[in-house]
Recover the amino acids of this structure.
């Protein structure tokens, strides 16, 4: 059930199989490395896990911010999986509103529908699926 009291079905989820592979890769990384490492090491390990799980991905994928057809800002997402899902990783004790806002900005710039925010900062990996309602 969602917050509106309607029953969710698997077909209601965006990219369920791909999401499952991404989240599974994150758990694999955390199970092998544990907590307490720098974010850049989790990113390298996640890239290895994506490759092992035959996920196509781009690291540090660029999405420009434009005004009047001029680039006024540069945004780099941690991963773009299968050209469909933005994957952003963090290493904090919890998700912050700024993390969610950052990912929503990436979705807006990319016109993609889904992002997965992954946090390696606590004793267990956690994740949030974030949907672009404006796409």
């Amino acid at each position: 059930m969602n917050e509106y009291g309607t029953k969710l079905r698997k077909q209601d989820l965006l990219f369920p199989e791909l999401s499952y592979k991404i989240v599974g890769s994150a758990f694999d990384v955390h199970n092998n490395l544990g907590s307490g490492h720098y974010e850049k090491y989790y990113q390298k390990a996640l890239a290895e896990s994506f490759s092992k799980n035959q996920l196509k991905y781009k690291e540090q994928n660029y999405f420009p911010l434009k005004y009047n057809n001029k680039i006024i800002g540069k945004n780099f997402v941690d991963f773009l999986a299968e050209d469909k899902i933005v994957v952003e990783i963090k290493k904090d004790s919890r998700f912050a509103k700024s993390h969610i806002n950052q990912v929503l900005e990436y979705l807006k710039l990319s016109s993609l529908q889904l992002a997965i925010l992954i946090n390696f900062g606590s004793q267990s990996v956690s994740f949030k699926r974030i949907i672009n309602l404006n796409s």
About this structure: The chain has one domain: 11-131. DSSP finds three helices and five strands in the chain. The first helix runs from residue 16 to 33.
